[in-house]
Amino acid sequence: MNKIFALTGVVIKELYRRKDFYVLFVLTAVLTLAAGAVNFFHDEKIVRYVKDICLLLIWISSLVIAIVTTARQIPAEREARTIFPLLAKPVSRGQVIAGKFLGCWLATGMALVVFYFFFAVITGSKEQSWPVLTYFQAAWMQWLLLGIVIALVLLGSIYFAAPSSTSTISFVVVISILLVGSHLHVIALQQPEPMQTVLTFVYYIMPHLEWFYLSDFVVYDFGHVPLLKIIAATLYAAVWTGILLLLAWLGFRRKNLTT
Amino acid sequence: MKISPFTVLLTLLALAFTLALGLAQDAAGWSQRGKSGNVLGMMFGDGRKLLANQFFTMADVYFHSGYYPSVFDNKAGQEDEPKAIVAATRGHEGHDHETGDKKCEKCEECGSFLGQPKDWIDAFGRNFKIAQHTHLEHGKEREMLPWLRLAADLDPQKIDTYTVGAFYLRNHLKHVNQAEAFLREGLRNNPDSCEILFELGRLYRESSHDLDRARNVWELGVRKFLARSPAEQKENRLVFEELVVNLGHLEDEAGNYGQAINWFHAAQKVSPNPAVLQKQIDEIQKKLAALLPVGPAKLY
Prior knowledge:
Helix content of chain A is about 80%, strand content about 0%.
């Protein structure tokens, strides 16, 4: 386990040494503050559009950080040939996968904490209310989603040729699931065979990332999701993360690293 | 012959300057975008109208706190319904829903777009999205305003933006001056709009209690309506009916019963329910009869 944590620490250090997070955070902060400064009909109490914009930017930023950071982990090690001394030490390929995953997941988690703290301060100062449980649920579910996404990107980075292609394909897949995931069954019913069966199969087999999008509850002050449902969603996310990591390990185990 | 690069540069600059002078007059007419009155108009051109519609829809999404059909959801039976925020300005909600945080008990009867869960994934997924039909209330209607402001900036010819925005500013947020300013802005952009004049008249009558200004504005609205083509008049009968019925009530309130009867007669010609208006005419006629001086023959 210590070896996994050592790898995790390296990945976290890499995130705070790189400028990605800082640039995205500053961009999010500037855009949110600019949006919040706009005066509509001299009404100071209008706040939901600021929450909406800020959460959208947080989602975009966190997805960019998670996907871009993860996509370059293994290809960068191969390109710099640091993967060989790493594996020459008594570190198994499974531990490399686990360490890389944990590092990326914890790093994005830390970034999320900073983003949500900023969000809570900005909206709390305008709204004078602090629905901590709703914020916590939204951040937790987003972090779980990022866990699945990181595992998916890690799997992709083993099979695809370059980090750029892995990142692009991952973005397309994640955004497609978020946008049409819950409607795929309805879309399938309108298609001719065999597309209907294919889409229905995809609907049942894909990870339903759209469940983890709780921004509407935060923006519209709609309370919180029952705890049991959150626990069930957490289990669902853990299972999917496990499946994807297992597939990544199976691929990496047989991977020829010299080519 | 060797030409210095500076000479070539100067020649090209002179040529560009001459062409610019020659073409400036013609180029002004090539695009309408540069003539737009605001920055958004210059940036988006005619595409801004699409964005304006999207922002207007966003106001309706906020009004429903995110409970809103997507392009994939079943919207059967809802296509011809006006948006709830528009319906509310006309004194009805389009369909009978509870407001606030209370769930609408009639959603299943009136065809909620979500319907019954299609499978276990759909059923479980509904725990993580807003699945209750509510409307904003208690001053929270203000949250729609940024989208309406943006919609008005992007498409100044969209009448509903002004009437809806002014309605909520005046009725729910009590910002009468802001509502009037918004309607005046709409009127500057759409000088022939009877709808904006009608809403402005309501503001003067219901919020400012200024019957004279309300009368003037509504009468102007009637004149603008009558100046429209017959096809346009047929299409916008509702606003004419609203104008003349309200004028009738106003004159009734002011004690000008003869004029009130004239307006109600005009409303009967376009109303789907003239019998109700006839009852009001009968009542006013009774008031009028009671006011008439009693003749000398009856005294003796």
